[in-house]
Amino acid sequence: MATNRRAGAVLALLMTSVLVVAGCSGGGDEESPQSELYKNPVTLTWWHNASQDGPGKTYWEKVAKDFSALHSTVKIEIEAIETNQLQRTRIPAALLSSDPPDIFMTWGGGEMTEQVEADYLKEITDQTKTEVASIGSPAEIWQVNGKQYGLPFRMGIEGIWYNKEMFARAGIAAPPTTFEELNAAVTKLKAINVIPIAVGAGDKWPAAHWWYNMALRACSVDTLKKAAKDKTFDDPCFLKAGQDLKAFIDTKPFQPNFIATPGQNDPTSANGMLANGKAAMELMGDWNRGTLDTVATDPAKLATFLGWFPVPAISGSPGDPKAALGGGDGFSCSKNAPAECVEFLKYIASPEVQKGYAETGTGLPVVKGAEAGVKDPALKSISDATAAASYVQLWLDTAYGSTVGTAMNDGVVAIFAGNGTPEKVVSGMKAAASK
Amino acid sequence: MTSANQIRMPAGGASASPAGPDGAGRASARRAETRRKWYEIIGLTTPAVVIYVMFVLVPMGFAVYYSLFRWRGVGPPTEFVGLRNYTLAFQDPIFLDALRNNAIIVFGSLLIQGPIALGIALLLNRRFRGRAVFRLLVFVPYVLAEVTVGIMWKLLLTGNGTVDALLRSLGMGGLVHAWLADLDLVIWTLLAVLTWKYVGFAIILLLAGLSNVPDELTEAAAIDGASWWQIQRHVTIPLLGPTIRIWMFLSMIGSLQIFDMIWVTSVPAVRSLGASATMATYMVDNGFFARLWGYGNAVAVILFVISFVAALLFQRFLLRRDIQGAITGRAK
Known about the structure:
The complex is a heterodimer of chains A (about 425) and B (about 325).
Chain A: H1 2-25, E1 42-48, H2 55-70, E2 74-80, H3 83-96, E3 103-106, H4 109-117, H5 129-135, E4 143-144, E5 147-148, E6 151-157, E7 159-163, H6 164-170, H7 179-191, E8 195-197, H8 205-218, H9 221-230, H10 237-250, H11 270-275, E9 279-284, H12 288-295, H13 299-305, E10 306-310, E11 323-333, H14 340-348, H15 351-360, H16 377-388, E12 391-394, H17 396-417, H18 422-433
Chain B: H1 2-6, H2 10-15, H3 23-66, E1 69-70, E2 79-80, H4 84-91, H5 93-124, H6 131-143, H7 146-157, H8 162-169, H9 186-211, H10 215-223, H11 228-239, H12 241-256, H13 260-265, H14 268-272, H15 279-289, H16 293-317
Antiparallel strand pairs in B: 1-2
InterPro entries (chain B): ABC_transporter_permease (IPR051393), MetI-like (IPR000515), MetI-like_sf (IPR035906)
Main location (chain B): membrane
Pfam family, one (chain B): BPD_transp_1
């Protein structure tokens, strides 16, 4: 008896192990027939990056609930994941495991091209013609070889966020429109003992964006488009970008020890410095309105002094002075997601949902008519500048993909740290392209 | 193996002998018992072995396999490149910086924590009022989560942060440094934080070792006229040998694989410049962030081989006597 009992226990243990192991590898959901919409109940899994409690996260919960109310067969399960984790580990791993979420974030550029080449994403060109027409040229960022694979919900160009009150105190009459004027403003701000520009070089990309803007000014639009497509960086304008940046850094416009300053999310970050009156300017994208609010000790005061102007032009450079750097957030459906996923994607890009998104103040909407929801004056000026931009270049690290992008950012950070050179940025990018 | 022998239960022997008391029956009973013993061994070890194989050996095999490919983590790996990823790693100055930083942490931890821990442990081993409180305080940093400690020190050490303010208010403004931003200094700052966190672990281990030193020996030495210091030097510390060696072993392996604290306390820019990178942070930065999955796996394999060889050498030359029996077979 005892033996039997023991054998039974052993068997049970073995069974559990087997079950645990099976549980790890299982999870292949049955596919629902895609012929008829809203006939069969489906559950859409949705991964987005509004992981911090706030208006952004609450809004997506409402959007999911509203969609389920409209279509009772659709249930939406949300998982909100911090951006880095989402983009670098969770999505790639989920896509590899052949059990990806139905709808998840995509950012366009090199990474999306690879995802399309690996046949991970659902092509939605025909279903989304209306939305794409309404969004206009930014929708192209979510295209690969002319086909649509996702839709943006947020898009904006970057520029310089500044403290109007400090500018007035330093006697700067109007926001600078050229780098010469910017240099003059830096000198005036130093004269009243204010840190002219905060940069979150510790996070690398906030520093690298200065190089991107130098490249945008130094390179022609054609050169930039070609570089993103071929990953060749032989044009001398990429060297020029580094030289211009080095000259700018040498004028010491940034806070001390910027190499360890984080970009956003805490009071010691570059974001926190601007939000709390410790620095006069910061180069950042349209999402900054929301992130500044979260680190400001006095958000009401922040609203009174915050302003925005486009990145100044460099006189005599071949780049288009009306071109701007920008980027956005979008959603795509995975290859085998039910057809309802595309409907949900279109719902997110509908004017009403976009207007509500704009009202949260977490970013700029993309479809026509939604800009009415933009209330903040700084965001309004970005919205106008985005509409006026002659060409919007996607963030270079996104456009070139993470591998070249990381090497590029590392090279730029080395220039900031004083042990890099313009040549090393370019050679690092070339080496990474072959890694 | 030995444990399975010891768990033999009295009830089992009786129920497993169906044959009569003749010789053949006894032999078959013995066979049955042997068989039953093997069932026990298999039954008891299978779950552990299955989990070990599934979650340790198989992933390790995959890491080696993936490290031979140029692979960005999109689609299955197809571009076989042989050992190219390994060559690239050893050509990358940042990886060599990471190796150097790991070496600094390994030897720095041993050389700094060892003497401090020994001193404090000997002190705390004496009877005095409030000893329990001191023991607790010394151990607190080790109990805190590594990420918590990392963030705490990051805030304390930030430019014009608490540490700088403290130094200035004590009239030592000249000592204020860019603790986490100075590329030459940052690894030493991190070493100091690591020491603060892990010295408590060494102390607790040594205190446990000290409690095993028989009082008779120290009393005998005292009667022979040895001073307190002589007793420590010639009796206590030699008897602490096994404990010290085990601590050195754990400290070395932990230092080679250090990740959390470095990741949290020093910012990405400082890491990517090589100033504070370790092999583990280099692996994550390249594997996940630069999406060089094949390359990241190669770095993981290098880290594994280095740790493995270090562990083997340490066991072979320093731990041999201490672990005799546990690994090499029956003691005595």
